[in-house]
Amino acid sequence: MPNTILTPNVIANEALMVLKNNLVMANLVHRDYEKEFVKVGDTVTARRPSKFAAKNFTGAVDPQELNEGGVPVKMDRLRDVTVQITSKEMSLDLRDFSAQVIEPAMTAIANAVDADVLATAVEGACRTVTASGEDAAKPIKDIAKVGSLLDFAGVPVQNRRLVLNPSHKVLYATDDNMSKVSYAGDGTALREAELGKVYTMDTYMSQNAPYPFGYLDNAVGTAKSFKVSGTAGASTVALSSVTAASATVKKGDCFIVDGYVYHFAADATASTGAIASVVIDQPLHAALTNKDATVISAPTSVGFHRNGVALVTRPMDLPMGNKNAYVASADGLGVRVVFDYDSTHKIDTVSFDILYGVTTLDKNMIVKVQG
């Protein structure tokens, strides 16, 4: 039987399936998708789920309007993986091409999407629970506290989730009171990440939960808070209002701004509460002036309701003049695949990309665990 011809259509649909199977956090939040084509940087309106009040009937009903309001979301996250390919790869059947090219590419994109959604949730959390130490008698009480805070906030019990950093997973999963569920079947990342339902929350583990890289080696800086300034696209930032005034940041220390996770790429020490310049691990997403940062000084997990955070996706236009491109969409996700030829370097490429935005819908529905 002849091999399936590897057209952009075939590859895009396979890529979409692989992406869906590798997402964890993105499958746990509110999703908004429409088939309107947008460009990077456009602002779209995402639907906010309605809320109603149960009123006492006193002889006549008081009709309530649908309050499914709109939330502006900037479509500023374009995740791309572009791969050089040869006639050798293009001669593979779909299964082998998927294993060699599509799966690694879409796994990288899935990790990036999950990390962005987690970062937005952590940054938007209204309350913080301090994680127990490794020698605590009943560390599981931390999870109970998260559930309790959601209870007091009036958050519905259905569709509550808890996503644990691997460090917290070890801490809580070894507690005798922690229920663990073993799954087998479709092999998706969501199934493999699931630990079971604990204190009203469906519980998962994600390696994309933010943490300082030096935490396991006790090599974390002493800065507890600071403000960030920098130029869009720059690889360095300035820090002000550093607490304490002579605090340090270490290579690998982590902070979040506007839902973007950054790690310092070098050590630095504050002088009178300021650091003039320190290198970060990726270009700054936007121009910032004394922007409050969410400092991640220890492993961080997050408990939330599905309607507390939204992942908003939209398809992008196909490149003008390029017929070797296709957009596949389903279940609130869209993936674009483009074949191209780089005449300067004489190479063929295939690119996979996805455009999306992330926002908090209700901070009262989010609680983080840190420590």
How would you explain this protein's 3D organization?
The protein is of the alpha+beta class and 371 residues long. Among the domains are: 124-210 and 300-307 and 366-370, hypothetical protein PF0899 fold; 215-296. The chain is built from 6 helices and 23 strands. Strands 1, 4, 19, 20, 21 and 22 form a 6-stranded mixed β-sheet that branches. It has a 6-stranded mixed β-sheet with strand order 5-23-18-6-8-7, with helices on both faces. Helix 1 (8-22) packs across helix 3 (94-124). The termini are far apart. Mean pLDDT is 87; it is low at 179-187.
H/E series: HEEEEHHEHEHHEEEEEEEEEEEEEEEEE
**Which architecture name of one domain does CATH use?**
2-Layer Sandwich
Q: Average the pLDDT over all residues and give the rounded result.
A: 87
CATH class call of one domain: Alpha Beta
What is the CA-based Rg, rounded?
A: 23 Å
Q: Helicity, in percent?
A: 10-25%
